[in-house]
Write the structure tokens for this entry.
Amino acid sequence: MESHPSDAFVFFGATGDLAYKQIFPALQALVRRGQLNVPIVGVGRSGWSRDKLAEHARASIKEHGVYDEKTFDRFVALLKYVDGDYREESTFTRLREALGGAIAPLHYLAIPPSVFPTVIGGLARAGCVQNARVVIEKPFGRDLKSARELNAILHEHFPEESIFRIDHYLGKEPVQNILYTRFSNAFLEPIWNRTHIRSLQITMAEDFDVLGRGAFYEEAGAIRDVIQNHLLQVLSSVIMDAPLQSAPSALRDEKSRVLRAIRPLDAQSIVRGQYHGYRTAPGVAENSTVETYAAVRLFVDSWRWADVPFYIRAGKCMPVTSTEVVVEFRRPPREVFGELVPSLSSHLRLRLSPDVVIALGMRVKVAGERMAGEDVELVVTRQPGDAMTPYERLLGDAMRGDLGLFGRQDAIEAQWAVVDPVLGDSTPVYDYPCGTWGPREATRLLEGDDGWIDPRH
């Protein structure tokens, strides 16, 4: 199906926090690159005027973007504003008027999921959904059942190819680099399987607490917040088969295929933790059992990956802030030189933050007469530069109709199916001190392996 560019950009929640921190800077950047030259219509319910929204946008870009007076003037010339209650038909009537001659708008819902049905219904009754696209923010539901319900609501008015489920993590340059590294280096493919790979670990560590977002975290927890979405998507990028062609649909086909092959979690495959002091944070229940740390052991039921353990852990109040993937290769079947060699001697490290690192670990001989060795890493390091921000990349793709970096219904539901059996209080939550790597109980997941890999080493 041939894709057409959207001829207007509408964003609900224009006066909200997400718009202030991310959307306005991304939109100005798109204008600067010449990729956005259509009406931009903000919709909010704060009683604002168009001039107040423009000044709000200026403050946003100065604080969170790269402010340029000439580019900002071009951006503001495109900006319109509609203020009103999302429950009132008049709000959507005025939106239709603000769109003017636009016949293929993109509607970005930077609003709570609970408001999605109201807004989508209002758009439909005002004649704003024909030939339109819709972008929705995660979370895409709270579990498998609610994800299916949300998809049913979306499909009442939009075909699947017009629905863009945005996960900003997929727009990050280092995450893009995983796919590029996988499929631009032919030497990896012959060893990218259960014969040569012993295990894989993904760590997403943050050295800070919930930062005043206790009420949000009480609703989410680490599994819903980052494992079900960000980290399962990273895993799929690492272990998926090569797409048959460069079309976005082919990339999504392969991601969906490997996500559907992941075995659902059970109580023996997860350990949940909560850092000391979480229950005293504003908005947190004094007897909360919500996890601020989760570690899981996954298996993929495919010929390529059968019986290979995949470990994922994510947590707050860890010793460092770092996200990385470590692929552990198998050692030779015989240690010719009689050494007791650590299994991690042979590995590939893909660090996503705070810096971008690709490192290949191997064993080399130390100087001297003895045939003895040491572990080394061949490292390529690149500090984040003037890269395109995730929202700039993703919103630009959505305007062009490029679905490659957005979640598809079957993939989203497959991700929920993986974690659905262990959501809530189905397993205990263990305390851990701030500044540590989580509860000691998490080590039981790695029976037969050498333990969790420290990103600092």
